[in-house]
Design goal:
14% strand; globular; 7 strands; SDR family oxidoreductase; 8 helices; Rossmann fold; alpha/beta
Length: 262
């Protein structure tokens, strides 16, 4: 299947590693030109070298931190300077610290709301006019399976990512007539550094070994294993593709069947 991504211009947030990088690599493998964003210039540079060596889509990078006040302005400028415009926006953010509802102080709520919700919405609003003008756009927002079934000890993530669900559905309706789709991609247990960190935190909280925690979690996944970043990235690339033009306002789970809700 030709995904129709050759030459498309994609901005992929939080793509120095993990899920964001997986989507960026998948888009580039289909011929898209990708702009990687992250806090580590060294890591971004190495990722770009790897993508460019593959000889399909091109990759460039820009340092960006969602926690910084000038993030939106910097991204808008980078899109124009390095891509010459925008076709695809992949909204992806780091996850907040683990903890319970009682651990959610006002300071923590405000800090992570800024980086996980406010700047995602603001950046999207800044780039949508370009997509409208060209009658084409793909907006993909990475969230978490916690918006379907809240994950224990991730109260901040469950709360803040859920705010994007209503936003995405509203946005999808408003921009559909301009050839723009807006979808959400919900990872379950995809094997990344973040999963290793969370398993370590849960092991400490439960007084168990990381191996015990990991084994217990695998029993809750019908396919019996963690997902791969490559599998997740492929799903993201499809939602950004031409053939996915009739899919919008949806949430696609990539969780090995772990969510029990219909």
């Amino acid at each position: 299947m030709d995904l129709g991504l050759t030459g498309k211009r994609a901005l992929v947030l939080a793509s120095s590693r993990g899920l964001g990088l997986g989507i960026a690599k998948a888009l580039a493998a289909e011929g898209a030109n990708v702009l990687l964003v992250g806090r580590s210039g060294d890591r971004l540079l190495e990722n770009c070298k790897e993508i460019n060596a593959a000889g399909k889509g091109k990759a460039d990078w820009v340092r960006g931190d969602l926690a910084e006040d000038n993030f939106i302005e910097a991204m808008v400028a980078a899109v124009e300077d390095k891509l010459g415009g925008i076709d695809i926006l992949v909204n992806n953010t780091g996850g907040p610290t683990p903890g319970t509802v009682e651990d959610m102080s006002i300071a923590k709520l405000d800090t992570f709301f800024q980086s996980m919700v406010l700047r995602v919405i603001t950046l999207t609003n800044a780039l949508v006019p370009q997509m409208k003008a060209q009658s084409f756009g793909r907006i993909l927002t990475v969230a978490s399976s916690g918006v379907i079934e809240p994950i224990p000890n991730l109260a901040l993530s469950n709360t803040l990512r859920a705010a994007l669900v209503g936003w995405n559905k509203t946005l999808a309706t408003e921009v559909a007539g301009f050839g723009i789709t807006a979808n959400m991609l919900l990872p379950g247990r995809i094997h990344t550094d973040r999963i290793d960190e969370l398993d370590g935190a849960n092991a400490k909280r439960q007084g168990k070994s990381v191996e015990e925690v990991r084994s217990a979690s695998l029993k809750t996944i019908p396919v019996g294993r963690l997902g791969t970043v490559e599998e997740f990235g492929a799903a993201g690339a499809f939602l950004c593709s031409g053939p996915a033009s009739y899919i919008t306002g949806t949430m696609l789970r990539v969780d090995g069947g772990a969510a029990r809700s219909i």
